[in-house]
Design goal:
By secondary structure, this protein is α/β, with parallel strands linked by helices. The chain has one domain: Rossmann fold. 46% of the residues lie in helices and 16% in strands. The protein contains nine helices and seven strands. The chain has a seven-stranded parallel beta sheet, with helices on both faces. Helix 2 links the parallel strand 2 and strand 3. Helix 1 packs across helix 9 and helix 4 packs parallel to helix 6. The longest helix is centred in the middle third of the chain and has 29 residues. The model has no long low-confidence stretch (mean pLDDT 96).
């Protein structure tokens, strides 16, 4: 039997990059998947299955996240897995960063993850089962220059995950986080060559990760393979900043 047979998964930011890889992996493992994204069309095109729904969702708006979860309930009858992946970057030095750029990043990453965790866990609590996977970042562990907003948000997700895990464990709901490092994507490969090379020099495995490698860890946390794990943060970094 596939690892997620009969499960229903909701993935925010699931129309591209790591989110799309997670949605595709979950689908392959037997789940029915609801993708939320500001532009859901690429998910329709990439996943193209009767077991998929893709809807527009702004994770900073509680009503949008509620509608996303309601889609899962209406279309497939439950919401067993929630992956809070949606994110943006607005990089700049702290001296040059605008208050708006700080607020946007905090709102999408941290408030968006709080909305997803809070609203999904309410459904899962009634079901007496569920797994929530929050996507943090290595930036939330070590802090990255030029990313005071992003690093703060991603560190906050780790704290949120631990607090939520303590609140929901008694109801059969598990909450865990993943901290990816340098993952190959259109955004990262567009870096100047000297920046890419500098980051590569910090990775003991001497390569960037692939979105599918993050997706496989999300699959582990979403499935019963991790049934006695909650409140944990798993690094997918090739050993960078151990």
């Amino acid at each position: 039997m596939s690892l997620l047979e009969g499960r229903v998964a909701v993935v925010t930011g699931g129309a591209q990059g790591i989110g799309l890889a997670i949605a595709s992996t979950f689908l392959r493992e037997g789940a029915r998947v609801v993708v939320g994204d500001l532009n859901p069309d690429p998910a329709h095109e990439a996943l193209g299955s009767d077991g998929v729904r893709a809807v527009r969702c702004d994770v900073t708006r509680a009503e949008d996240v509620t509608a996303l979860l309601d889609t899962a309930l209406a279309a497939f009858g439950s919401a067993d897995i929630m992956v809070n992946n949606a994110g943006i970057t607005r990089d700049a030095s702290m001296r040059k960063m605008s208050e708006e750029d700080f607020d946007q990043v905090i709102s999408v990453h941290l408030k968006g993850t709080w909305h997803g965790t809070r609203l999904a866990s309410a459904i899962m609590r009634e079901q007496q089962r569920g797994s929530i996977v929050n996507i943090s970042s290595l930036s939330g562990k070590v802090g990255m220059a030029g990313q005071t907003n992003y690093s703060a948000a991603k560190a906050g997700i780790v704290g949120l995950t631990k607090a939520a895990a303590k609140e929901t464990a008694r109801y059969g709901v598990r909450v865990n986080a993943i901290q990816p490092g340098l993952i190959r994507s259109p955004m990262t490969t567009a870096m100047p060559e000297h920046v890419w090379d500098q980051k590569m020099s910090e990775i003991p495995m001497s390569r960037a990760g692939e979105p599918e490698e993050v997706a496989n860890v999300a699959l582990f946390l979403a499935s019963d393979l991790s049934s006695y794990m909650t409140g944990t943060t798993l690094e997918v970094t090739g050993g960078r900043f151990m």
